[in-house]
Amino acid sequence: MKSVVARSLYDYWTKLRGQRPAPERNEVDPAAIRGLLGDTFILEALDRHTYSFRLAGTRLCAAYGRELKGRNMLDFWSGKDRESIACLLAAVVEDGAAAVFGLSATNERGQIMPVEVMFLPLHHEGPNHTRILGCFAPMDQPYWLGLYPVVRQPLQSLRLIWPDEKPAFLLNTEKVDGTHGGSPVRHDPPPLRFDRRRPVPPQASGRVFRHFRVIEGGRSD
User: Fold this and answer.
1) Number of neighbours of residue 171 by Cβ within 10 angstroms
2) How far is 102 from 118, CA to CA, in rounded Å?
3) Is there a contact between 209 and 160 (Cβ–Cβ < 8 Å)?
4) Which of 77, 119, 73 shows the shortest CA–CA distance to 100?
5) CA-to-CA distance for 103 and 153, rounded, in angstroms?
6) What distance in Å separates the CA atoms of residue 62 and residue 2, rounded to the nearest whole number?
7) pLDDT tens readout for residues 66-118
8) What is the pLDDT, as a whole number, of residue 118?
9) Is 63 left (phi over 0), alpha (psi -120 to 50) or beta?
10) Cα 66 from Cα 161, distance rounded (Å)
11) Are the beta carbons of 204 and 213 closer than 8 angstroms?
């Protein structure tokens, strides 16, 4: 993670969750991250095509020149970029991954602002992580931010981070729950969910996992 905002939010989330896959939604204390609130947001996962903003920070709303509450996060992209973000969000909700990606936020004048965005799972009722804590962290503060709204944001990089070093669906295959004929019985892994391939930027590090780059461990640097 390159931005101070993303690293700080990840460290806070890691402290909250402890040894669990993710913290509870009601454990997030706005006062504890007051300096980050303007850049943070919370999404509600309604289904695989709808991730609605429940909360959005003031600086994030200013970047787009509008209130974002109730809007679908996926509507900010189209085509392959939308498919890629949908895959990231599915990994966060269903497998407890953290996701970080870079984009080029561009206004109607063609001026570009590099931004780092992060998704972190939160548990809230049911088996999946139906709330997502995130941040929208500009790498610099151009004069036009808040004056000329962002109208395009093509993706530049995509990363999944498994805080416990392995995806939840792989950890499940390693759980021994009994024996049969003297041999350990293991769960068969579920089918992989990411079917579409997207080129991985050369600057990303880690091993390749389908069209994402898997970062082993939960370090924030």
Assistant:
1) 16
2) 9
3) yes
4) 119
5) 6
6) 22
7) 999 999 999 999 999 999 999 999 999 999 999 999 999 999 999 999 999 99
8) 98
9) alpha
10) 31
11) yes
C-alpha closest to that of 99 among 173, 140, 30, 155: 155
Q: Is 45 exposed, middle or buried (0-12, 13-18, 19+ CB in 10 A)?
A: buried
Tell me which H or E stretch contains 82: helix 79-95
Ramachandran angles phi, psi of 137, nearest 5°? -115, 100
Going by the DSSP 8-state scheme, the letter that residue 196 receives in this structure is S
If you classify domain 4-216 with CATH, what class do you get?
A: alpha beta
**Pairing state between β 150-152 and 131-138:** unpaired
Neighbours of 21 (CB within 10 A): 15
pTM for the full model?
A: 0.77
Burial of 29 (0-12, 13-18, 19+ CB in 10 A): exposed
Can you tell me the distance from the alpha carbon of 145 to that of 65, in angstroms, rounded to the nearest whole number? 9
pLDDT confidence tier of residue 128, bands split at 50, 70 and 90: confident
DSSP 108: T
Instruction: For residue 218, count CB atoms less than 10 angstroms from its CB and return exposed for 0-12, middle for 13-18, buried for 19 or more.
Output: middle
Give exposure, 62-82, as e/b (b: 16+ Cβ within 10 Å). ebbeeebeeeebbebbeeebb
Residue with tokens 């109607």: 108
